[in-house]
Amino acid sequence: MIEKHSERGGPFVVRTDGSERVRYDYPSFFSYAHRGRLSSYPSMRAECHWHDDWEFLVAEHGHLTYFVDGERVTIREGQGIFVNARRLHYGYSEDGSDCEFLCMLLNQMRAGATKDVLERYLLPIGDTSRPPYLLLDAADGNADVILHMLTTISAANESEMPAAQLTILSCFYAIAQRLTTMMDDADVKRMHISGPLPLTIHAGTAYQERHRTGRIASLTAMVDFIQSNFSRPLTLAEIASAGTVGRSTCASIFRDYLNQSPIEYVTDVRIRKAVELLSGTELPISEVGIRCGLRSPGFFSRTFRSVIGVSPLTYRKQLRNDLSPYRAETRAG
């Protein structure tokens, strides 16, 4: 679960393909850690996105649900999740309850590993054939080590100790070692489960997996298209075309995976961008609306109020008076 700013690194930048460029905790380093709560996000829901980093989240108080590449997993208090690189994901509250969490991004490409270590151990973790996520429960020895390492990294960041970067680096390799073991175990279990099945079941399962993978690929393409073009008028036909599907299939994919219509998702992206601009710039409110694809001031104000609960002007005033619960925390991961 990631907010849009950090004390050391400044704001995150969203690329036009819908991915994030992360500004890490230390210049030229590879980690970002943040504590937050779901209630800081509009509708207690982060924005659907992806990035090249490994993402980890620990539910410290309360629980939440994560969507990862078409699957939903509940993370209970004390548990965590590892989200693999380049997987479409977001976190949200399914029952309206709040959750305080620790979220961390680690970029395996920037950890300074030798070419041999990178190719033999780190890159295979993120291969598209590997699981998109792992649930981290302390009852599992490997997961328990990872959870402990995440806490250690967070403590090193917060203390700003002189050797914090060395601590983070050593924790990263401990995490990578445990992830490798857990991924290998997951592969063995998957082969064991699928091995004895009759050929007809294999064929049916393979078809279902291809169907799901195709829908996720379409969703990713459509999310990227919306992220690149939200500042201009968008039609359902354009969005569907970006995913190379028909309009009805487009609507079905968004409803099944994001619980929103395509146009509702467009509005969600626009309002979250407006929150960023209202909190991070001094742009006139009318200009904020224009940049977010909501060119009519009246329509912008009504739409913003329907999502955030107050008008853009009131929201900006609340920010200045430290009263608004929403502080540009729009993404989960």
TrEMBL record:
GO molecular function, one term: DNA-binding transcription factor activity
Pfam families per record: AraC_binding, HTH_18
Database matches in InterPro entries: AraC-bd, AraC_XylS_family_regulators, Homeodomain-like_sf, HTH-like, HTH_AraC, HTH_AraC-typ_CS, RmlC-like_jellyroll
Coiled-coil regions listed: none
Sequence ranges assigned to domain HTH araC/xylS-type in this UniProt record: 220-318
SUPFAM superfamilies, sorted: Homeodomain-like, Regulatory protein AraC
Record's keyword terms, sorted: Activator, DNA-binding, Transcription, Transcription regulation
SMART domains found in the cross-reference section: HTH_ARAC
PANTHER family in alphabetical order: HTH-TYPE TRANSCRIPTIONAL ACTIVATOR RHAS-RELATED
Protein name: AraC family transcriptional regulator
Organism, as annotated: Bifidobacterium ramosum
